[in-house]
Amino acid sequence: MALLEVEDLHTYYGSIEALRGISFTVDEGEIVALLGSNGAGKTTTLRSISGLERPRTGHIRFHGQEVTRTPAHRIVEMGLGHVPEGRRIFVNLTVEENLGLGGYLLRRTPHEVARRRDEVFARLPRLLERRHQLAGTLSGGEQQMLAIGRALITRPRLLALDEPSMGLAPILVQGIFQIIAEIRKGGTAILLVEQNARQALRLADRGYVLETGSIVLEDDAKSLAANRRVQAAYLGGEPEVAG
């Protein structure tokens, strides 16, 4: 049984069908990439899975439990973390305060929140250095680390990441992808939406390509990187060189 199962999912914005019957899985401990152009439905997919959008039809199961109609906070409690596009940190709060809000569901056990915050600081030491700094004064890369760290407070079994490299300089992108790889090494599965398709496929085990709300391709990451259609649309037309 897969950790996450999405079956024939249809999500609408008013009368506009954003997801047209998509189905896919994520297994324990793997990285799965969702590729597609702007407007393909990638963000809607993540929002539907995490309970921020209500699908009209279809099924979402998380470690065997139906969560299609489950409130977002309950899905977080079950072990699904979501780092949204644009980071959505609280710019007028400190790094430490932002991480504390990530532990909101544990607010009745502040000692546990503090323990998990220290775990995040150990994994992302740059945040420890900036713990008393206002989040809005951090660099773009540090803000993305904070958004990831805030989600890690819940100790997710699956972490959904929406465009983690957006707006970052290439040298910072490498650091973010290294963090993602380290999170997977710790046993957390990753569902990755990423504009940098080349980097995403180097990191992922498998991938799916979305076009106008439908999955049009699915394969292991190496095969997708070698696919001429994927190369032309997302890799600049250049063949991916193994190594």
Based on CA atoms alone, the radius of gyration comes out at 18 Å
Total of helices:
10
Strand content: 25-35%
- Characterize the largest beta sheet: strand count, sense, and whether it forms a barrel: 6 strands, mixed
Can you write the helix and strand succession as a string?
A: EEEHEEHEHHHHEHEHEEHH
Q: Mean of the pLDDT scores?
A: 92
- The computed structural class is alpha/beta
Gross geometry: globular
Distance between the termini: 32 Å
Which parts are unreliable, with pLDDT below 50 for 5 consecutive residues or more?
239-243
Spatial ordering of strands, largest sheet: 6-7-8-3-9-10
> What fraction, in percent, of the residue positions are helical?
25-40%
Strand runs, count: 10
TL;DR?
With 243 residues, the protein is of the alpha/beta class. The protein has 10 helices and 10 strands.
Write the layout of secondary structure elements.
Layout: E1 4-13, E2 16-26, E3 31-35, H1 42-49, E4 57-62, E5 65-66, H2 72-78, E6 80-83, H3 95-102, H4 110-123, H5 125-129, H6 140-152, E7 158-162, H7 170-185, E8 189-193, H8 197-203, E9 206-211, E10 214-220, H9 221-226, H10 228-234
Parallel strand pairs: 3-8, 3-9, 6-7, 7-8
Antiparallel strand pairs: 1-2, 1-4, 4-5, 9-10
